[in-house]
Sugar ABC transporter substrate-binding protein
Amino acid sequence: MLKNKKKAISLGLVALLVALCLLTGCSSSKSSTSKKDGKWAGQTLTVQMIGDFKMQDSTDPISGKKVKGLNTLKEEFEKEHPGATLKIVTMPWDGYIQKTKTMVTGHQADVYQMPGLDGGYAREGDLEPLQPYIDKDNFDLNKYIDNQVEGWETIGPDGKKRIYGLPVFGDTRFILYDKKIFKDWGVDELSEHPTMDEILDKAKQMTGKDPKTGKQTYGVYFSGKSPEWLIVNAAEGQNGSWGSGQNFNEMKFNFDSPEMLKGLNWLVDLSKYAPKGITSDQGSEKWLTKDNNIAIMLNQGPGSLITKINSQGLQDRIGIAQEFNNDEGKGGLFAGSPFVMAKSSKHKDLAWEWIKFSSSDFFQKYLWEQYNSIPVIKSAKDWKSVKDESQFMDPTFDALSTPWTPHYPWVNGEPRLELESQVQGVLTGKISPKDALEKVQQKSIEWAKQQQKN
């Protein structure tokens, strides 16, 4: 009897194991063999991304909402590419330039997020040109918002301008203003495309004691630590420009032009109607709060703007206007981040698949809905989550499509640092506008000549 009982127990255990196998074994088998089978079997793609990304789900500190981690992208990409393994390496913005350089030099990734595309990587042959892949797949570049692809064209080792990156993370600049302060002062709101004179005049009118509240208000604010973009954009609004040329031996600079000088003098006049701490980036602490005391904010970016506005209940109070454009409707800093393919990648076809994947509605909607990243594809305009924020997203898309392209080739070089430094000197009274711009012009010419020797 004991023998029969043991036999029954054994049979029961066998039956249980079979049942467990049926329930879980098949899926485990697929999981363990999926990396060995499929078109992309055995390939591991390493992608570098910059920002406050997390692989696992987390909670947004501002809105308190749950944020899906990058595993969402990993799972979808691996599902669409059987056999492939995706490894995402994240890094914060702090120190990303040096960290990226270390990774590129050490051949540590196949794909990089590269906001500083003109950091020399394409010129030095570290990046793979994408046009052959675009042509092979007949990949439609018209899916991207106008000017976004052109903005990332840059010079390769052969001296020719090519596509080395495709847009992923949208960014742009615009002007924000507080409708309540305008109303308190009886001043008309900014026009959709305000002029330099309009901004100066209205900033002057709204500096002083608010006639409704009796509290001090300031007509304008801008970053005194990074004022260089305002000067360049002011020149563009007068049909001027920073200059021309992408190759160092072809570059011509216009930093000492009449348009630049007028723009710098305008900024000096404008600073009279800003908080005193503007040169040290102080005085805007109340911005985007119900106690705000600044009427106009220049050179603003999207970032977490909508989240902050919604969290403070300021949807009906904040307005948005465009930066200065020339007569062709072009102007403003081109910003954002593309994905680029490393020349050293051993999985270039899979890297190209990832870059294409980044242009999908799935990828772009994930970045927008989870991390407030501005979409770079036209189809995003039809998403409900975008339409729900049309008050801010419609003008943001307009701004995305009109920046100066290709992007300023000196953006990561000495001309930018010199322009920034000299404009700061002007704002603090250490140098005259004319002398400052002449120094920037000379330094820029010397920089371009030096780059030709490197």
User: Anything to note?
Assistant: The longest helix spans residues 2-34.
